[in-house]
Design goal:
The chain has 150 residues and is an alpha/beta fold. It has two domains: 1-80, 2,3-Dihydroxybiphenyl 1,2-Dioxygenase, domain 1 (Roll), CATH 3.10.180.10; 82-150, 2,3-Dihydroxybiphenyl 1,2-Dioxygenase, domain 1 (Roll), CATH 3.10.180. It has helices at 19-29, 46-50, 101-110; strands at 12-16, 33-41, 56-64, 67-76, 94-97, 131-136, 142-147. The chain has a four-stranded mixed β-sheet, covered by helices on one side. A three-stranded mixed β-sheet has the order 5-7-6.
């Protein structure tokens, strides 16, 4: 770490195609708390900050313990319609820890959430002996749940 500054986590920002739909998913299905909702952001600095002249966007900020998530819908310009493959450079996933992965899996499956597989038990690495599963948000963004080994 450079001696001239230090970093701590602040938030994760996620671009979504439909802010209302995504906010409902993260709030109602995953249990996030809505910290704030900003209608169209008209602050003069925003186009400079994101590097897109004339940008128009809306933001909803949500929280779960240990994570603040900003959902951002670009009104203008619209971006690609769906997230890329998890193997695409620059793609990310957000991992969550759960106490009972199988219960969470059943609950989310019943709610219509799409999964990349059934839960698997890692055989090596820091999650060896626990459970993990990848699933998708409404835009196809990869999310992960991990249950640590007992």
């Amino acid at each position: 770490m450079p001696e001239s500054f230090s970093l701590t986590a602040n938030h994760v920002g996620l671009t979504v195609s439909d802010l209302g739909r995504s906010a409902a998913f993260y709030r109602d299905v995953l249990g996030f708390h809505v910290a704030y909702e900003r209608g169209e952001v008209t602050a003069e600095y925003m186009p400079r900050l994101v590097g897109i002249p004339g940008v128009r966007l809306k933001i909803v900020g949500l929280d779960v313990p240990g994570l603040h998530l900003d959902l951002i819908e670009y009104i203008e310009p619209k971006g690609a319609a769906t997230a890329g493959s998890t193997s695409d450079t620059g793609n990310l996933h957000i991992g969550f820890t759960v106490d009972d992965l199988w219960e969470a899996y059943r609950h989310l499956s019943a709610a219509g959430v799409r999964f990349k597989s059934e839960p698997v038990s890692p055989t090596t690495g820091p999650n060896k002996g626990g459970w993990a599963v990848y699933f998708l948000d409404p835009d196809g963004v990869t999310l992960e749940m991990i249950q640590r080994a007992a």
